[in-house]
Amino acid sequence: MELRHLRYFVAVAEELNFTRAAERLHIGQPPLSMQIRDLEEEIGTPLFERSKRRVALTEAGRRFFDHACEILARSQAATEDARRAGKGELGELRVGFTSSLPFTTMLSDVLHTYRRDFPQVSLSLREMFTVAQVEALQRGEIDVGFVRYRGLDVSAGIVTREIGRDPLRLVVNAAHPLAHRAEVSLAEFRDEGFIAYPTDVGTGLPAIVDELCRKAGFAARIVQRAREATTQIGLVASGLGVAVLPAPLECVRLPRVRYLRIGDEGAYLSLSVAHADRPPTPVLDTFLGVIGRIAAQSV
């Protein structure tokens, strides 16, 4: 029994006329009659009562009709489901992102556009530091990540592509003598205590700050470490030291905090998209396409 047998049967059952059913199916009446007889022989019971004046379903035919319609409908749904999955319109996507991303327009623009264009794809979002995202990509726990990566070491089997750059800001207490300045150089803060991320959090920012300070002729003196950027800002407000953070965090406004532009060359933090180094799934391919379009618009 094949799906075409079911389609032939349903056409005859709905028309109750072999001639009209054959016209509807665009086949000849004799081949249609033969297919229905073959179907009845395979099932082992008549599905139609035939006479010169009428065609009617038997009790077996009526019961078989309901099942045949259900099977054809499910077959069509399965075909459409597979077709849409192949085009990246259905499925699940697991996305990692760093904690500063919600303060940028990139993440919100990408997610808004993707959910609008591909509403049937389920998105699972995980906030993670960059190193944790790379490890999760290697283990297959996420499909794509928004990472803070600046061309340093990247693990084998992972592809990264820069999609944006955020300038760095020096976060100072409002009472600091240089708080009124629009732009400063890091060398002017060589004697200050710095508030920084712990070395084990897996963000690339500490290495960038160390490099910038080294180029400015000093090594940053770390007086406090905090895992969250907002905590660092709060500690600056308390007068414990200064911090270097991405510019999008300027939206965190506290009365005793000022954000100053850093004039040193290379004072920026890259935003990159990362995924496994293999052909992307259809869902990932469409997501990367949306990222590319949003990134191009923000240039």
UniProtKB/TrEMBL annotation:
Residues 1-58 form the HTH lysR-type domain. CDD domains: PBP2_LTTR_aromatics_like. Pfam families: HTH_1, LysR_substrate. Keywords: DNA-binding, Transcription, Transcription regulation. It comes from the Bacteria. InterPro entries: LysR_HTH_N, LysR_subst-bd, WH-like_DNA-bd_sf, WH_DNA-bd_sf. Coiled coil: none annotated. Belongs to the LysR transcriptional regulatory family. This is LysR substrate-binding domain-containing protein. It comes from Aromatoleum evansii (Azoarcus evansii).
